[in-house]
Design brief:
Length: about 400
């Protein structure tokens, strides 16, 4: 049963980036939800056949405490129906962190998870490019895969860049290198086509981390990728509508005195809602109602959203989770620390202008970070083989040994 559970876990990691593009409607939902529920059913026999439940970390206990508090919030929620609906969503999304922790037993399996997420991001990028190429896209300036939000698509693709760079830096894995080399330019095109300003800034952060990681390796694959990116950007500039580029060029204007596309007004309304119930919050999934916004609005800030819905208690729990994940990144070494640290930084940057607590990508990333920390402690030699340090030139290696 563990093999079945692991296969479902890989399928879930592959489906998460493009999950909203394949939605079967109620009661089934999207593809990632279906795979997650099937995986949950497979986890019980898989755990019983093995050594039992793996000892949990501080992150998992914090997640459990957060879930308990969100469940209790139904007693004082201003909208109990919304709270019940969102709590079910939180439960289905947060359990992914436990799935990764329980099922990932070797560094090779961790790399397989990374590979599946990058492959899923390739699918998302292709769907976004297909929307741009379709006749129905005439007159658009923002392009996105069916069923997706442009800002979400940009964020999901941004998270794939450092993970793809980690695959590219791995030795003797031609298929991984090919996947990463295909994804990097394709994913960048996908981000630019969304015309997401926050996604573009996060892409710059991701690319900076990738550049640092890949600059330490002198390979023809890295050189070829670096040579291809300018051609990709030139082709993008010449083919996309002027409105797409113009929207991205308004980033300095938005940062220098504009209202960040109405976000400042939303944050002001959210702050007033937080002051109304600062300790216990207004209930899970009630930000829009508490702030008096239109149903289509969101908080556009993760910390503010969880503060309004769960109060100071949930905000402290979430802050502790971020601190634990950050510590796990620092414990790692070599390219794994650079890649997962860059992905974590991209996630932090995007959380400032988006609500990411109800995205499966969030909990998959956190699960991979703490699993990588455990593997680095339990199997350091295997981690070094799968994610090796770059080789120093002989002169530098001799200097390092002398020190």
């Amino acid at each position: 049963m563990r093999r079945l559970a692991w296969a479902l876990m890989l399928g879930l990691a592959f489906a998460i980036p493009w999950e909203y593009s394949l939605d079967l409607g109620p009661p089934l939902g999207n593809i990632a939800r279906i795979l997650g529920l099937v995986l949950l059913a497979a986890m019980a026999p898989a755990v019983l056949q093995s050594r039992g439940i793996r000892r949990l970390t501080a992150l998992h206990w914090l997640v459990l405490a957060l879930l308990v508090w969100l469940a209790l919030s139904s007693f004082w929620s201003i909208d109990r129906e919304a709270t019940a609906f969102h709590f079910r969503g939180y439960l289905q999304e947060m359990m992914i962190a436990w799935f990764v922790w329980e099922l990932t037993e070797t560094p090779d399996e961790l790399r397989a998870l990374l590979r599946c997420y990058v492959a899923g991001s390739c699918v998302l990028a292709m769907l976004t490019i297909a929307n741009f190429a379709s006749a129905d896209a005439a007159g658009q300036i923002r392009f996105v895969a069916a069923g997706q939000d442009p800002n979400d698509v940009a964020r999901f693709l941004d998270l794939g860049f450092p993970l793809g760079a980690l695959l590219l830096s791995a030795p003797c894995r031609r298929m991984d290198k090919l996947l990463a080399m295909v994804y990097m330019p394709m994913g960048l095109i996908g981000v630019l086509l969304t015309a997401s300003r926050a996604g573009f800034i996060a892409a710059l952060v991701a690319m900076a981390g990738c550049g640092i990681m890949l600059a330490r390796r002198r390979s023809r694959a890295v050189f070829g990728l670096g040579m291809a990116l300018p051609a990709v950007l030139l082709a993008f500039w010449m083919t996309v509508p002027a409105g797409t580029i113009d929207r991205l060029l308004t980033i300095p204007q938005q940062l220098n005195g504009e209202n960040l596309n109405q976000r400042l007004n939303i944050w002001s309304a959210g702050w007033l809602a937080f002051r109304h119930a600062p300790f216990v919050g207004s209930g899970a999934g009630t930000f829009v109602a508490a702030a008096g916004l239109a149903p289509v609005d969101t908080a556009h800030n993760t910390a503010l959203a969880i503060a309004v819905e769960g109060g100071v208690i949930v905000l402290l729990l979430a802050t502790a989770m971020v601190a634990v994940a950050g510590r796990s990144v620092l414990v790692l070494c070599g390219p794994a620390r650079l890649a997962l640290g860059t992905a974590f930084l991209v996630w932090l940057v995007t959380s400032l202008v988006a609500t990411v607590q109800e995205n499966r990508t969030t909990w998959l990333l956190l699960g991979m970070i703490v699993a990588a920390e455990r593997l680095a402690a339990e199997q350091p030699d295997e981690m070094e083989q799968v994610f090796p340090q770059p080789r120093l030139p002989e002169s530098r290696a001799a200097e390092t040994l002398c020190r």
